[in-house]
Specification:
The chain is of the alpha+beta class. It is built from 14 helices and 36 strands. Strands 1-2-3-4-5-6-7 form a seven-stranded mixed β-sheet. It has a seven-stranded mixed β-sheet with strand order 13-27-26-23-22-21-20. Strands 14-15-16-17-18-19 form a six-stranded mixed β-sheet, covered by helices on one side. Helix 6 runs antiparallel to helix 7 and helix 12 runs antiparallel to helix 13. The protein is globular and about 90 Å long. It binds zinc ion (ZN) (2 copies). The site of one zinc ion (ZN) has 4 residues, from loops.
């Protein structure tokens, strides 16, 4: 009975979604053995057939239903999901009105059954945890059975065993099955192919863990898979693997190589405490007070109001006249608004920061603060300004996040470069948190920062958390050696044509990420794409929603040149009778004829 009630709920979604369903693909069922088939969709969908009945491992867009129909088969008896990501289950609504039962990892069950609760509680600000991923269903999916590690599902004389495959998600399962003379493990996204991962960012669990938590989980999953003595690994993305142990061990080696370079030993830096006109103040991160001869102060970063209090308590200092935020992270700017209010300070910023300071909730990135900051003066890259006789120069300095700036100033005859969080030692860059977005490109990311330092030759680096260091050409050379080691390691690990795709979770994104709209009004959503590829990409994007929000011209296509960004605008209208609440709009992405599924979303709160 329960099943039928649940299917009835899905039927409602089916009716909403039919108007936006994707054109049927031309993919067919590839027969892997007598009873096992592969359907290449937004993920690999595996079909097991028994006397005209089928069972599916993951379901992708649901287009596999057409292929089953062509064979004269009905919808599967069961769909087993390896994990909760949208590319495994975005088509589950198509199972409405069928007899299909859905089984999922018990520990991820709530991401299916209570997806809407996940979205209701989704944190936009002060977010330092990367799990669970927002790559979660946009609608509730009824679940018939939750499977724990070790559980067995019996189906038409076959026994399918659930084994741990955690790492890519917190509680992913793999499914082991003996069939047609082989032991197959359907391994979800533990591995893409020999030595390779579909992405690296999913292994980062929280700020600065560099994938270490994910790596430990991957090792546990590797051992659990190998305990089944599989002849074949069938991954959710990627290629079939006939030598599972070799493929998995190579992947772990490549992953360890990435983590070890990100966590290289730190060389103890030579620290300089202060200069006559430069003082360091602890304000969650480190702030810097640059003092003019006549007692005015220019402030770099303000994680809280300590710098303001320091100036207030110093009879020789008058007020903070200007503020330079190096980047948008809360620990560098939560004290800015209050300082502006009390001291009437002017905020100067690099142009790369303007948008995220003014509209933080437009972005789906960590460590955002709720209250926007209004810059008074926005500087271009390399632009200079003069503050009370001190010349300062603004730089795009994307070492820790893409939205990050550096500032060069000559203080007491020394060239001081304010680096923010781009370096945590004079020998290498700060940890890579993928969700901050940092490129592996000579013109972006840490290599760009190193080029800036090579060109500007500062005497000192004033860093965001690690004090002031002397800086030499030898340091710059060591930094470059370190940074040039990054890309080859990521290339060995990540399966995409360019490793940036497997590190940049937001290479496709919807702006604004969060918006509030009144009934009867509309919002413009911009699809932004960063083509990390070395060739032109043809993009096809289709926006949809699980609700009656209406989207004009919901499908758009265009090309984006190699290594360039591109965007398209969409208009989402909220009908007058839309009940107030939270709605999720998803963008279904096809790049160069490979459909990837609903990779990005935007949150729309109807008021
Ligand atoms: Zn996944
Ligand atoms: Zn930071």
């Amino acid at each position: 009975m329960l099943v039928h009630k649940r299917i009835a709920k899905l039927l409602v979604l089916f009716l909403v979604f039919t108007s936006v369903s994707w054109a049927a693909t031309s993919a067919t069922l590839e027969q892997l053995s007598d009873s096992v088939y592969l359907y290449r969709d937004i993920c690999n969908v595996y079909i097991i057939e028994r006397e005209g009945h089928t069972l599916a491992i993951d379901f992708g867009s649901g287009d596999v239903l057409d292929a089953l129909k062509k064979k004269g088969w009905k919808a599967p008896d069961w769909v087993l999901h390896t994990h909760h990501h949208r590319d495994q289950c975005q088509g589950d609504y198509l199972l409405a009105g069928t007899e299909t039962r859905i089984a999922v990892p018990e520990k991820e069950r709530h991401f299916f059954e209570k997806a809407k609760t996940f979205w209701r509680d989704k944190k936009i600000f002060h977010n330092y945890l990367f799990k669970p991923d927002p790559f979660t269903s946009a609608y509730n999916i009824p679940v018939e059975r939750g499977l724990a590690v070790g559980d067995e599902l019996e189906w038409r004389g076959l026994t399918i065993k659930a084994i741990t495959a955690r790492g890519h998600t917190m509680d992913q399962l793999a499914y082991a099955l003996s069939i047609d003379g082989k032991r197959i493990v359907f391994s979800g996204d533990v591995i893409y192919g020999p030595g390779k991962l579909w992405n690296y960012h999913c292994l980062q669990y929280r700020y600065n863990d560099c994938g270490q938590i994910g790596r430990s989980a991957q090792k546990v999953s590797r051992d659990a898979i190998m305990a089944e003595s599989p002849d074949l690994l069938a991954p959710s993305h990627g290629v079939l693997m006939n030598h599972p142990a070799k493929a998995l061990d190579e992947m772990l080696t490549n992953l360890s190589a990435v983590i070890s370079i990100l966590r290289s030993e730190r060389i103890p830096p030579v620290k300089v405490d202060r200069l006559p006109h430069l003082t360091r103040v602890k304000a969650i991160s480190h702030s810097y007070l640059i003092e003019s001869d006549d007692g005015y102060v220019f402030l770099v970063d303000a994680g809280n109001t300590n710098p303001m209090k320091t100036v207030d308590e110093n009879p020789n200092q008058k007020k903070i006249e200007g503020i330079w935020p190096t980047h948008y992270h809360g620990d560098h700017m939560q004290g800015i608004n209050e300082t502006v209010e009390k001291h009437g300070s002017k905020v100067y910023c690099h142009e790369i920061l303007k948008e995220v300071l003014e509209n933080p909730s437009d972005f789906n990135i960590p460590c955002l603060v709720r209250k926007p900051i209004q810059p008074d003066r926005v500087l271009g890259d390399g632009e200079t300004f003069n503050w009370r006789g001190i010349e300062m120069r603004s730089y795009f300095f994307p070492g820790q996040t893409h939205f990050h700036a550096g500032l060069l100033a000559t203080i007491d005859g020394k060239r001081v470069f304010f680096t923010g969080d781009s370096f945590d030692s004079p020998e290498h860059g700060h940890n890579y948190n993928c969700r901050n977005y940092i490129q592996l490109e000579p013109t972006g990311g840490i290599l760009r920062c190193i080029s800036v330092l090579e060109e500007t030759k500062p005497d000192y680096l004033a860093t965001g958390h690690w004090g002031i260091w002397e800086f030499t050409p030898e340091n710059a050379a060591a930094m470059r050696r370190w940074a040039e080691g990054l890309r080859p390691r990521f290339e060995r690990l990540i399966a995409w044509d360019d490793p940036n795709f497997g590190m940049d979770e937001n290479w496709v994104s919807l702006f604004p990420y969060y918006s509030e709209v009144k009934q009867g009004e509309s919002v413009k959503l911009q699809m932004r794409v960063r083509n990390h590829g070395a060739t032109t990409s043809k993009m096809v994007v289709r926006l949809s929603s699980q609700s009656d929000l209406s989207i004009r011209k919901s499908k758009k296509s265009w090309t984006i040149k190699a290594k360039k960004d591109g965007s398209k605008d969409f208009r989402v209208r909220v009908p007058k009778d839309t009940p107030p609440g939270r709605y999720i709009v998803v963008g279904d992405i096809t790049r160069n004829s490979t459909r990837l599924g609903q990779l990005c979303e935007a949150i729309v709160d109807v008021k």
